[in-house]
Amino acid sequence: MSHYDVIVIGAGAAGLMCAITAGNRGRNVLVLDHANKAGKKILMSGGGRCNFTNMYSEPENFISHNPHFCKSALARYTQWDFIALVDKHGIPYHEKKLGQLFCDNKASDILTMLLTECDDAGAKIQLNTSVEQIEKTEQGFALNAGNKPLTCESLVIATGALSIPTMGATGFGYDVARQFGHSILSTRAGLVPFVITNQLKPLCEALSGSSVDTTVSCNGQTFRENILFTHRGISGPAILQISSYWREGDEIEINLLPDFNAESWLAEEQSGRPNAELRTVLSDVFTKKMATLFCENWFESKPMKQYTPAELEKVAAQLSEWKITPSGTEGYRTAEVTIGGVDTNELSSKTMMSKKVEGLYFIGEVVDVTGWLGGFNFSWSWSSGHAAGESV
Ligand code: FDA
To answer: What InterPro entries does this protein map onto (predicted)?
Structure first.
């Protein structure tokens, strides 16, 4: 029987940060993972360049049934703490946009940094190991991992959530939470493209690969970013962001002219160039293909002077308040994150420890805290992992 002070299940972003922090405190740490490699999601993140944090990270960038829960952990290990670690390892990075920090080279720079830190902190990582059974004992926990009995004082569940099952995502963390009497708040795919199967599908297909700057709104939330048409529907950063606020059956509203008052712009164009066709006017702000397809699908393209004020009003509304009811999302198969998870009301916001079971911790994506697109999800993994690492 091997005994550890701390066993962390899950060698992803949150688990590795927790192991580093606990190891640096002198705790004897073992990290278990069923995968053949640690940090697979880190490697595939940010298109292979890992958007490892966001300079403007604030609690407002996170979604949770309890929006206050994330504040303590985020404040005690900030984006600047992680940036200092990246700097310490001499990893080159840049801001892509909106405070999003990406590696200049490869996401593996971040994983190598974490594994080096784990090594320096004396934390041991054991891969290809499934945990079969967990029991609470008087001193802590007893588990069966890879047919070997292990015991520990503190047990940290850092097994992530349901997005990208082909990467080894499982509901294991939820099962452990339930086993120890925790509630799981209903889960759904977040940061995920929308599928369109209605009459709009041919337009999405025809424009597949084209993107346009927009504001997209749903359920009181608005994002200013590009949308991207795909063969299956719509995607792009603005859509991924709004998908986290969308529920089945909800309508989303897209403003295709976010910098303009569409009505006054069209009225100006009408008086400035009365003989120009609407399609020509629209090609000034959209690609030619987009302008043509929008006209074919929505309007009769005729010279501007022939539009009545009521007709122009309709054109303006279509362009600035385009309403779409997505048929669904692409689901966990392509979602970057899972919304919902272990109920934060049953965890300490300071330490991430269960309020029900002494010594049991939940960190990272398995918890009901989900970040926006832009490095916020890793921020949560680093901060929650650090909070637990300080306490275990
Ligand atoms: P994570 O999923 O990283 O790790 C969980 C670990 O637990 C895995 O190693 C898994 O193998 C292991 N595990 C699961 N079940 C187990 C079991 N039963 N037994 C043992 N081990 C088990 N975020 C961001 O901020 N910036 C970005 O650029 C991106 N990019 C991105 C791209 C793509 C394609 C995806 C899918 C996601 C992102 N994300 C992101 C989100 C980010 O990857 C995610 O929020 C974190 O990886 C969550 O970290 P965790 O450590 O909680 O789980």
So the answer is: BaiN-like, BaiN-like_dom_sf, FAD/NAD-bd_sf, RsdA/BaiN/AoA(So)-like_dom, RsdA/BaiN/AoA(So)_Rossmann
